Amino acid sequence: MDFNSPEFWTFVLVILSFGIYIYIGYMNRVRDTRGFYVAGQGVPAIANGAATAADWMSAASFISMAGLISGMGYDGAVYLMGWTGGYVLLAMLLAPYLRKFGKYTVPDFIGDRYYSNTARTVAAVAAIFVSFTYVAGQMRGVGIVFGRFVGISVELGVVIGMVIVAFFAVIGGMKGITWTQAAQYCVLILAYLIPAIAIALLLTGNPIPQLAFTFSDITQRLGTLQVDLGFKEFVQPFQGKSQLDILFITIALMVGTAGLPHVIVRFYTVPTVRAARYSAGWALLFIALLYTTAPAIAVFARYNLLTTLTGAEAQPDGSFVMNPVSADELRAENPWIPKWEAPGLLRMEDKDGDGVITVAPGNAFENKAVGDPTPVDVSRNEVYIDADIIVLSTPEVAGLPAIIIGLVAAGGLAAALSTASGLLLVISSSVSHDIYYRLIDPKADEKRRLLVGRLMILIAVIIAGIFGIFPPAFVGEVVAFAFGLAAASFFPAIILGIFDKRSNNYGAIAGMLTGLIFTSVYIVLERFMGVPFKDILGPAYISSQGIGTIGAILNFTVMFVVSRATAAPPQEIQDLVESVRIPRGSGEASAAH
User: Fold this and answer.
1) Taking the domains of the chain in order of start, what are their residue ranges?
2) What is the pLDDT of residues 173-194, one digit of tens each?
3) Chain Cα centroid distance, residue 199
4) Domain 15-300+400-470 carries which CATH code?
5) 25, 44, 54, 286: which is closest to 174 by C-alpha?
């Protein structure tokens, strides 16, 4: 075995990190439902902040964020603003109030606040769907990282990930998951920052990625190679979208993120309302470390890939000269290229048979005279790069030590597993607590409830693994579906549940169903049935990525109107709302029990 190979160090670091996760899960095993669902509400604020950051920053943030920015250019900032803004909404408008309410899950809040099992059921079903959508992607990400860096099949990688997650999630519940996620955050942030610091130092002489990206001449040098960011023709940027549509996409991402149940439940695990506020602040700091680094990673990786694939050489005046390079020459000079070609994440094809690989990505770049602004025909592009390899391939492209390459792989796995575990617990709690215990068998004792919760995690792990091994064709499409559902269902119901004591059960049910049905039908008609809403609606067109905003507005409107057209909530519910929305003290709202 080559002890200096990326595969060796990946194997070592993955085994070491997995061993730590298993040990933490075993040491934090639980024997009661309070520990299983909310970690006994005894997690310190800083640890919960780290766990929240790991739970929130999934494989999409770690693996895909920089790739989106690198592939979509300035348009990729929509995801930065939407996802980060969503967390700020959650931290400021929801977290302390939900902790004051003192329940276990989002459907728990909705069911008790709106004194309705129908509302609870609608919320539980939506939580299950949203969570399964995300967890399938996480498990697939685990398999891809294993397949690329460890040399085993994607399918076996998914199975290994299933076993690891099932172990600490089943025996430890939320307590085991929380402390494991805190450790996973440490792994993923080190894996993200160390390569970024090393590459920033190599390219600019400044070791701080954010400053190197902002104040160095790297963007000017990159501009010599291309007019704008944008990598491959398969990446569809927001070109041609109206400002209204982009605004609605950003809002949908924000309110959809703020309504994600696996993130909301994290604020139930701290001992006090004050701790919920502090943990939200810590989480924002921990998230910012990665999110402010993502644009720098995108630019540095873009720069290295373009100079590598075009054979460009820097000149004394800062310009670049393109040296025609064949695919075989690129493979011979860069051993990492065949490794990414094998799973189909990078492909080179000499379409015109001239023996040279032409790069014509995104908006206006090709192997042509420096400074020529003439748009090019991207159909002539002969290099195809999956956006998801931007972060994972960066250390190899930059020629960093093998141990850093292994660390990045371990970080990608940590990001995927941390989010997967949180989502699996949401699925388990939605079925075992919100449906089984609350609706089917309210007299179930502690032992039976705990058994059902653990059984539901096992079933959810198996289903998620099946989706990871055999991903349905629509997985990529239903990402918009998941955000739309979260935006159109949970966010309005929670906000009005906290700040409007006049909102009642009829309004909540009518609002959630209106938002869910409208958003679902629109996305299904456009994404899966090909209805040309863009041609029908013209300038008023809102894409399926942003339609959740309309769903949320409809939910708010219907809920507000119906609540005022029907009987007010019982007085004890109104008193509960008054207590919850002034989240002082260390206890819980008295009417919540």
Assistant:
1) 15-300+400-470
2) 888 889 999 999 999 999 999 9
3) 25
4) 1.20.1730.10
5) 25
